[in-house]
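From the pipeline queue, job 12 of 40. The input is one protein chain; the requested action is below.

Action: predict structure.
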Amino acid sequence: MINIVRATIKDLNGLTELFEAYRRFYNKSSDFNAAMDFLRLRIENEESVIFLAVEENEGYCGFTQLYPLFSSTRMKRLWLLNDLYVLEPFRGKGISRKLIEAAKKLCVDTNACSLILETAKTNEIGNNLYPGAGFVLDEEHNFYSWDTPQ
C-alpha cells in the first residue's frame, strides 16, 4: 500500500536518495551532501512543500516538490510543481497520480489559484499523465527563460 506524506526533516536521508536518483535521471552528476543541504534548506526555511510516496514494505518510492509563487493579476498564491519522480520499479502503479492529487489538495488547502508545471515536449509519459490528471496545456503563451552566465 502506498501512502503519501508531507516530508519533514526526519525524512531527509531517504528523500535525498530519491532526489539524487531524480537528478541522475536528468543526467546531473551525483552530490549527495549538496543535495541533502539543498533539501534541508527548503524544508527548514519552508521554501517548498515536498510530498513523499511511501510503500509500507519498501520505503520511499517517489516524491514531488512544489514551490510557492504568486499571481499579481489574480492576487493569490499559486504553486509550481517543479519535481515529480517515481523510482522505476514503482512506475505504472498510479503513484504519480497520488502525488499530483496531494499537490492539488495543497492548492485547495492554501487557497491558491493554480498549480502549474512545465515538461519537455519529448516527455511522452508526462504529456500523457498531466492531461489525464486534469491539467490543460497552454498553447497560447510563449515560455522564455534566462540563465545566469556560468
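Job complete. The chain has four helices and five strands.
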